[in-house]
Automatic annotation (TrEMBL):
One GO term of the biological process aspect: transmembrane transport
Organism listed in the record: Arcobacter suis CECT 7833
A Pfam entry, by short name: Mem_trans
Protein name: Permease
Family under the similarity heading: Belongs to the auxin efflux carrier (TC 2.A.69) family.
The keyword Isomerase appears for this protein: no
Length: 304
């Protein structure tokens, strides 16, 4: 348990430092959105390409490993739809509840999996990203299409959201290079290694900058439902599926960690683009980020 605390404290410490920088306006409010773009489009892809291209990938149980994550995501969404039938909320708010219930924070995931489980944990996490990011995009955009009337939603928008996602592209590139057996020149490999070291610190600071405290009290029931799904329903479902597929302890632990993570800051962007409730979305991101440390400790203690 001690190593979990030693991994959690630096990760959430960086998030709090990012929020502190926001409060004191350091270095400026204009800096952090640009820094987030740098992390999303350059630093994180560099990390994923570097780790996947240099990894010793073992295909044993990888299909079941990915399926456990996909099934847990899908059935969590179904449960949220059923809850909304029993206790309805308006359509735009429900899209934010869904995003809060099934999306995950990539930066926190990679930072914690690497810190707790080492290089092998980071590789297994990258494998999850390759499949869950496009799957979640399809589910979320489908929910927007069903619940919110929007002219922007069409099949090409869905395809574009997947093939232009730099994290998906990076995972495919890194995995393909590894599979084919191509070796980068030392200069390129070392450059990727240096860039990758900056990815997670910058990403976590940006997460902290994105926290919005002031609107939390406005959406109590929606916040409770979304956080209940994210921090309780999904981890329990993913553990059940992982046990059903007879995965090893490390895979189960990484899946539980994946499931209990806070939702992604990028959820706010999709809410803004497609007509979701932006105030609720920012509140869900903030509350789940703050709550997740507690739930990560609880679930890893129970299931590892």
């Amino acid at each position: 348990m001690e190593h979990i605390f030693s991994a959690l404290i630096p990760v959430f410490g960086l998030i709090l430092i990012g929020y502190f920088f926001k409060r004191i306006k350091f270095p400026s409010h204009e800096f952090w959105p640009q820094a987030d773009k740098l992390t999303y489009y350059i630093l994180m892809p560099a990390l994923l390409i570097y780790e996947l291209s240099n990894a010793s990938l073992n295909s044993k149980n990888s299909f079941s490993f990915v399926m456990a994550a996909l099934l847990a995501i899908f059935f969590t969404m179904i449960i949220l739809i059923i809850i909304n039938k029993i206790k309805p909320t308006n359509a735009s708010s429900f899209t934010s509840v869904i995003q809060g219930g099934i999306r995950f924070n990539t930066y926190v995931f990679l930072a914690l999996s690497g810190a707790i489980f080492g290089k092998e944990g980071l590789i297994l996490s990258a494998i999850i990203l390759t499949f869950t990011i496009p799957f979640i995009n399809v589910l979320c955009i489908t929910i927007f299409a069903l619940y919110v009337s929007n002219d922007k939603l069409h099949f090409l928008y869905l395809i574009k959201s997947i093939i232009t996602n730099p994290l998906i592209v990076a995972c495919v590139i890194g995995g393909t290079i590894n599979f084919i057996g191509i070796e980068f020149p030392v200069v390129i490999n070392n450059t990727l290694a240096i860039l990758s070291k900056a990815a997670l610190p910058m990403g976590l600071l940006s997460v902290g900058f994105g926290l919005v405290i002031k609107e939390i009290s406005s959406f109590k029931s929606e916040l409770i439902i979304s956080s209940f799904a994210k921090h309780l329903i999904m981890p329990i479902l993913i553990f059940i599926f992982a046990k059903y597929f007879e995965l090893d302890n490390m895979m189960i632990s990484i899946l539980v960690l994946f499931a209990v993570l806070p939702t992604a800051p990028s959820s706010f962007i999709l809410a803004r683009q497609l007509g979701g409730n932006m105030g609720l979305m920012s509140s869900i991101i903030t509350v789940q980020t703050l709550l997740s440390a507690l739930f990560i400790i609880i679930f890893l203690k129970i299931f590892i």
